[in-house]
Amino acid sequence: MMAPMAPSPEGAGRGTVMADKKNIHTVPTQDGWANRREGGKRASSTHDTKAEAQAAGRAAAKKDGVEHLIHKKDGTIGDRNSYGNDPHPPKG
């Protein structure tokens, strides 16, 4: 395991280790569908349809290299896609 680097005096935040990004969940709401970061209370985006929410969630997950978990209308996880940090070869 590598130790975090000390911040560079030339610029704030340069040379520091960034925190891990959180997975994105596409979830049903009373008004439609939303995308939320894992552990977050507020929606990062809201949408009228599941398809719109899935597209936005997929784009954000790809951008951040995290997992995208798509919930069904009843709230259970229906599908999941990973866009980073996959073990290779896959387990099982």
Distance between the ends: 26 Å
Rg over CA atoms: 16 Å
Order of helices and strands: EEEHEE
Q: What is the count of helical runs? A: 1
Total beta strand runs: 5
Q: What fraction of the residues are assigned to beta strands by DSSP?
A: 25-35%
Q: What's the shape?
A: globular
Structural class: alpha+beta
- What is the residue-averaged pLDDT? 83
Strand arrangement across the biggest beta sheet:
3-2-1-4-5
Low-pLDDT stretches are 4-18
Q: Percent helix among the residues?
A: 10-25%
Keywords:
alpha+beta, 5-stranded mixed beta sheet, 28% strand, globular, single chain, 92 residues
Brief characterization of the structure:
The chain has 92 residues and is of the alpha+beta class. 16% of the residues lie in helices and 28% in strands. A five-stranded mixed beta sheet has the order 3-2-1-4-5, with helices on one face.
Describe the structure.
The protein has a domain at 24-82. 16% of the residues lie in helices and 28% in strands. It contains 1 helix and 5 strands, in the order E-E-E-H-E-E. The chain has a 5-stranded mixed sheet, with helices on one face. The model is unreliable at 4-18 (pLDDT under 50).
Architecture blueprint of SSEs:
Blueprint: E1 24-29, E2 32-37, E3 45-47, H1 50-64, E4 67-71, E5 77-82
Parallel strand pairs: 1-4
Antiparallel strand pairs: 1-2, 2-3, 4-5
